[in-house]
Automatic annotation (TrEMBL):
InterPro entries: RelE/ParE_toxin, RelE/ParE_toxin_dom_sf, TA_system_RelE-like_toxin. It comes from the Bacteria. This is Plasmid stabilization system. It comes from Magnetospirillum gryphiswaldense. Belongs to the RelE toxin family. Pfam families: ParE_toxin. Keywords: Toxin-antitoxin system.
Length: 101
């Protein structure tokens, strides 16, 4: 299976997060990118891995907590390969960022 693809906004989210982390810890920024690449591979193979959140998005959109980091991967599980739409810090106002706030 092909890994999940990254929407332009998800790429911007990742660059922003990695740049912020790299200011204090370049190794942690690289680990974030590696963890997200691993998540993309897993989502390509198991698109239903994440949890649906009907309070935040429609039935095709799922949410996966990124292993080892306080980030949530928001992706379209119905696309093949899945499409990562956003990479959001869990401390942010996710409902507002998803248009539900």
């Amino acid at each position: 299976m092909s890994p999940a693809l990254f929407a332009p906004q998800a790429k911007r989210d990742l660059i922003e997060a990695a740049s912020w982390i790299a200011k204090d810890n370049p190794a942690a920024a690289r680990a974030l990118r590696d963890s997200l690449a691993d998540a993309a591979r897993r989502l390509g193979r198991y698109p239903d891995l994440g949890a649906p959140r009907p309070d935040l998005a429609g039935p095709d959109i799922r949410f996966l907590v990124l292993s080892g980091f306080p980030y949530v991967v928001v992706y379209d599980a119905m696309r093949r390969p899945p499409m990562i739409l956003r990479v959001l810090h869990g401390g942010r106002d996710i409902p507002s960022l998803m248009g539900n706030g």
